[in-house]
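Lecture notes, structural biology module. Today: joint structure prediction for complexes of five components.
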Amino acid sequence: MSRIGVFTCHCGENIGATVDCVKVAEMCKDIPGVVHSVEYKYMCSDPGQRQMQEAIKEHKLDGVVVAACSPRMHEPTFRRAAGDAGINPYMCEMANLREHCSWVHEKGEATTQKAADLIRVLVEKVKHNEPLHPIKVPVTRTAMVIGGGVGGIQVALDIANGGHKVVLVEKSPSIGGHMSQLSETFPTLDCSQCILTPRMVEAAQHPNITLMTYSEVEKVDGFIGNFKVTVRKKARKLDEHLCTGCGLCIQKCPNKKISDEFNEGLGTRTAIYVPFPQAVPNKPVIDTLNCTYYKTGKCKVCEKMCPTNAIRFDQEDELVTLDIGAIVLATGFKLMKTDAFPEYGYGKHKDIIDGMQFERLASASGPTSGVMKRPSDGRSPETVVFIACSGSRDRAKGVPYCSKICCMYTAKHAMLYKHKVHSGKAYVFYMDIRAAGKDYDEFVRRAIEEDEVKYIRGRVSKIYEEDGKLIVMGADTLMGGEPVVIKADMVVLATAVQSNDRSEELAQTLHVSYDSYGFFAEAHPKLRPVETNTAGIFLAGACQAPRDIPETVAQASGAAAKVVGLFSNEELTREPIVAVVNRQAAPVYSTCVGCFICQGACPYQAIEQEEIMARSGEVIMTLARINPGLCQGCGTCVATCRTKAIDLQGFSNEQLYAELMTL
Amino acid sequence: MRVLRVPCTGRIDYMMVLKALHKGADGVIVSGCHPNDCHYTSGNYHARRRWMVFKKMMEVMGVDMRRITFSWVSAAEGARWAQLVNEVTDQVRALGPYTEFRQVIGAGIE
Amino acid sequence: MANTYNLSHESLKGLFGSLRRDGRRILAPVDAAGRVELGEVEAPSQVAADYLQTILSAKEVAFPKVERLLSYTIAPGRVDLKDAEPRALPTVLFGVRPCEAKAFGALDAVFNWDYRDKFFNARMEQLAVIGLSCTKADEACFCTSVGGGPADATGSDILLTPIEGGYLAEVCTEKGAAIRALAPDLFRPGNGVDKAAIAAKVQQAFDQPALTSQLPGMFENEVWADQALRCIGCGACAFVCPTCVCFDIQEEADPKKGERLRCWDSCGFHQFTLHASGHNPREVQGARWRQRVYHKFSYYPERYDMLGCVGCGKCTRACPVDMNLKEHLIEAAGVKA
Amino acid sequence: MEAVIQRAKELLEQGEVKAVLGYAKGTGSARRPHFARQAGQLDKLVMDEACVQNLAVYVTKHEVKKLGKVAVVALPVTQRAILQLMAERQLRDGSLAILAVDDGAVKELDSASALEEHLALKAQVLNAKDKASLADLEAMDQGQRWAYWQKELSRCMKCYACRNTCPMCYCDHCTMDCNRPQWVPVASHGIGNLEYHMVRTMHLAGRCVECGDCGRACPVGIPVHLLTIGAEETVHELFGQRAGHKAKLDYALSTFKTDDKESFIR
Amino acid sequence: MRIGYYPGCSLLGSSREFDESARAVLKALGVELVEVPDWNCCGASSAHILNHELSIALPARILALAEQAGISEILAPCAACSNRLLSAQQELEKHPELLPGIEKAIGMPYKGSVKIVNILEVLDRLKVLISVLTTAPFRKKVASYYGCLLVRPPRVVNFDRPEDPQSMDLLLKAVGATPVEWPFKTECCGAAFSVTRTDIVAKLSGKLVQDAVKRGADAIVVACPMCHSNLDLRRAEINEYLQKEYAVPAMFITQVVGLALGLDPKALGLHRHLVPVAFAETAGVQS
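The predicted structure, tokenised, for the full assembly:
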């Protein structure tokens, strides 16, 4: 008969408030097999754990049930403590008295009784627990970072500087992401290109980092430490090694009128192009949709001009499969477009632009070389209206959340505009100013006080064009809701930050969960912000939620630290919660009948065929065998198997049956 | 309501539901993450097929399926889970004890 | 012959009435959706008319398919044991064929071999058997080959044989006499009737004593494996057989309470003799079929000097793959040692 | 029928097969499975409307496998069962000589693919009687169905004839025999019978070839075949998959579609 | 094409010309109108302020009558009427528990199977036919004014784009007119204040008239009796407010299409306008 110890935790007030822990500890003494039952205010605290360890040694316990919070919180803590006290960590189970009992019920006799019942369920389970030992799995010490923005670059650099190989995959032809499109950055107004480009170059030249630009992740198999990632290197239609980046082809390309994505449609580019001057790698790409050769078969000017004849018109996409140990998602965000606003004319007014377009206007490398020119007629705008919360905090637009960065960049935009057009008038319609970072609020105050940006607290209900002017109809709620009509030359909408295109598709490829807005879901908002629920896959930056540059870089270093930590030991120890197909002595060998119906149920292809040979070498039977390295312990095969030949360690049929029996 | 914790809906064997009824449960909730959001990729897809066949079989055998609720609730939907549990417990309490099934448990023994 | 009487159909109704008044339940073959099975009756009219036999045997009355031996509850620190009192209602088994009536003897041999089985005996004490001779038989019957007969009175407290306008009633035991005593006037003094003429003609199929002596020598013979090639190892034959006594003890418990149940088992099952080690002395179906025959035709005579088979043919009729016991025994008898 | 016996005799005499499995006359009007291992035993073979049992139940038995290659007289249900067994890797190509009998015509098949093509020619039709009984069951309401099955299953004595006669129940160690933990009670009391028949139905859903043998084998005549055939039809309705039609495993419950339609999961 | 027809009170009263022009145009386009027998008031702007059940029962009775008359689709040219019918229908769909009370109130069964369409939807379906049959293209610059009830609330009405509708503009193009880019398509004209606060109507409608003319519109085209009465009936107050004489006429879409089809202006009720429709084609027609 087992010697089980029950340790009931008050969890401060969380459990103690509604459950009479002393009584519960008392009641648990009567459960057959329990030889030691105590309660304590904070079991997870150091004294709490030490008390448990002493009890294990003193009462020679061989099984422990800690009745406290959710196993997701402290199962590792108590299992480690139990392990240190000399019993197998997997002989320690947790009964969740918090979420399953105290938090959901009123104080009372029934609640205390339920707590005791829940503990009895786990005691019965522990009686059927088997000592388990972590599975040792080799770790491929190469990381993959998906997304080459400032976040992705920071992760790659930190991991590379940690001494590990990194593959940085970027969808567009160059790394840099949205930050490369910015003019200056708040709150210091230092030029975005100046602080980003050195990092981009450092990443490109770092011996441990392999850049895979103009590439997308196609398929991810395997699991933590042993991912097999298939990346599609989209054809640049030129040989990267031969191309020196001289840019001759770009100058000579006759097809110059293609709308430039980098400049958010304000400028134009050639069919063979480099997104922006400081692009890394500085290798052009042929836009096959608009290139004349691909439409009509003629032209080929770039091929003729290329000094190292690097152009390869018939180059095909290339699929590369890489062994990867950990993946960091840093795919960034996208801005809601201006055509999403019916009240502002569905995007038909050229002079209503979004924040990124303003950045391009303000940027020295932008289409107007930094001179304030409004897109419609190029005139310098005398009056500019900035509208904060365009689309954000607006349930009708499907974006109820605050996009966090707009208050700051709107103040920056207003300030930049005033610096460039001293005589200009800048208005900002806002709901609340959210400038909570370091030196943030001072920055906004500076815009208001020094640069005389007029902040009007109110919403803009309608904008229409009249005599070349944009009539902005708003209200000033601080002045009793007075309607305000401003005749503006240009309007900048601080549109909502949304998850990047096809983020859900990528999440499904990586089996990572995501929220209803397409942002990736972190493992725990407070305690595990840079990890996902899928082991071995981490997060950094705005792909998880709207985030500014300082936070993105901080998270990037956080994620990198997790990866370096993961790679720090030779082997990865994995939870032994894996399925096992039973084996017995000859002549039965196993109750498995070799129908392999289970193989269809396993998403990780962890079920292999094992041939049982007679001494004569003749195959007697073919049985299923589970590769403990690949098995993630979901248990689908266990429930699918007709003869119950497969069992899941930690959630075995016997354990679950015992629990069911005491429900 | 008492809880039986399993790693995935894929692990839920219909015999567990039968055992719960055998041990006198008047209602059973079978729940897990939404399809396509399964942490183990396809556990809930298999579970869904299993439940579809299991439900029809139980209906053919005449079991009162109003007492067994199948639902997708993700770990992030705490409020929805609370609402579901309250709804189901009220519904089962309204249906009263499952005497029809209970009678069978003791029957057939001389 | 013991005292024989005539019992008219009318007086049989009267007898039923008095038995019921005496608080006895009457079980008899009844028609149930095209099948004939044992059921409770109030009057002879409810008894099935021209049936050969019931599918299941009457052993169920004394040795039910599931029976609680004991139950217990587990309280903190102690276990409260509760012996189960056998539910033994005073019962009259009416219309049972002579072969099945005789079978109770075979059950009794095992249940009172050395340990007196409280449950079986309690039920047998309360049981009275009014047998009914067979007027027809089918290919499966071979009672005459195993010392029985279509009108054999062994095992019946009263044996009725259908005659013109009623039955010839032979009172064979005290229980039979006790029944007659309930309503003596119903029993008219009988004029000796030649039962054999009325009873069904069941040809003797094989020389059973010779077979029994021959069996020990043919244990390794191939005939058993050949015969059992088509046996699918289910328990139909054992469960319908009036003389099969094997049972399995099952413990159904949870941490709060539990009960110990006795239920029917069959040597035909693949796992009947499976050892915990995985070894199974009777690995193949042939061995299991042989065991069924030897148990009834060799070990029973050896130990209880009676046969473990009454030749009722129920197993042959119930078998999904038509394992005809009589045919197989004839074949076995014909095998030269 | 002569053609089948003739072909069987040739196979036996040429030593291609060690035994021929067909039907023979049994007690009264019954037909029984018959293993003919020498030519002499061949004349006992018969083939008529009364021969309905699914002989595929024998092809997975150790004793039969020990005989060597066997020629099997295969009705459509037997053909489907053999193909499904091949799909579940219980039989290898060529371990059987299949004498496919389809309303009189005999065709010799020896590989899963040949069997698959042969089976594809004719649509699988559910016989009228079972279809009517299933419809009656469907028409009942929940209370009536419960009462109906409780009355029927109360007569079950767990002789396992229905399980052992089924070609798809070839597992040496069945869940019913599993006692750690004892998922299904062994005793044939109320709950024991109910859970046994529920689990058996679930195990056959998507694997049952609808031969109806389980219903015929039950000594006390419980129409258990309605449960398994009903489950098989359900799987066909829900997922469009039928047992015994594909050489490669095509089992509804071991795969899925991301857009499986259902209306009851909240 | 056979379609149910529900004129409503204003089409027989203050905006008779909308009814006449609608009937004339649809007849010319081969559409058979089946007027709902014994129809009653739709509750207009007062019912839903005073009594929730009444505001559902009135439209429900109309729809029930239509169902009994075998009408599967019903045209309610007046924006207010189609708006009331739609919201009553949806209210009953969302709250079936109200149905018994409503059926008792209107004394007949209500299924809610009738599809409610407005005049623009019907004309839009016949757009090809209209452009073919256009004999006298309406070569004018026009400002298309939708008002509110045609497009709001979007959840209930679910018609065109709530902020910048295009359906009337396309119709006008089909008959040869050139719609002007005009931001006030859905601004408020003052609606019911037409009776109680003419000063507000003057201000609001004035802004519309002023801007339309500034953008070169020769006529303002509407599809709602209330809009028309504010732009036409209240023109005196508008001119007084704007301190300027504005003679731009307000016309119904059905009148514009009618003219394009070459129908007699009198049959289109053009003579009933307070602000005269003084185009050359209608020479001689004067109120």
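Point to remember: DSSP finds 15 helices and eight strands in chain E.
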